[in-house]
Design goal:
This protein has a single domain, classed as Immunoglobulin-like, CATH 2.60.40. The protein is α+β, with helices and mostly antiparallel strands. The protein has a 3-stranded antiparallel β-sheet with strand order 1-2-3, with no helix packed on it. The chain contains 2 helices and 3 strands, in the order βββαα.
Length: 124
């Protein structure tokens, strides 16, 4: 698996509970099992306000040396949390970019030029 690889989960959305979370733990396979956890993060699969499936690109906070904690209330490894305002602003900007790209794909007569190039997007 590479950094830019899309993850496909073989579960139907209608089978998920509204409080479903995705926990991701990163392991170092060259270390002993007891020391192999590098970092982790968790994210709600549904927006807490509207209970819609989350979509788009997210920059998630990684918690070093901790396995993912998927207890819904009070998770110890939240990917998006209220304390990190700068990360929230970056996520909002990335979601606006994703929305604009989706809209421009469906509009007829829209220019074929990308609204923002890959290098600029990666810099954000």
């Amino acid at each position: 698996m590479s950094i830019n690889e899309q993850i496909t989960i073989p579960i139907r959305y209608c089978d998920l509970a509204q409080l479903s979370m995705l926990g991701i733990t990163i392991y170092d396979m060259h270390r002993p099992v007891s020391e192999s956890v590098v970092a982790s993060t968790t994210i709600d699969l549904f927006e807490p306000t509207y209970l819609l499936l989350r979509q788009g690109t997210f920059n998630l906070h990684l918690w070093p040396n901790k396995p993912a904690d998927v207890t819904h209330l009070g998770t110890k490894t939240p990917g998006v949390h209220a304390d990190n305002k700068s990360l929230q602003e970056v996520n909002k900007l990335l979601q606006k970019i994703d929305r604009h790209e989706k809209i421009s794909r469906f509009q007829q007569g829209a220019s074929r030029e990308p609204w923002i190039d890959k290098v600029s997007r990666d810099a954000i």
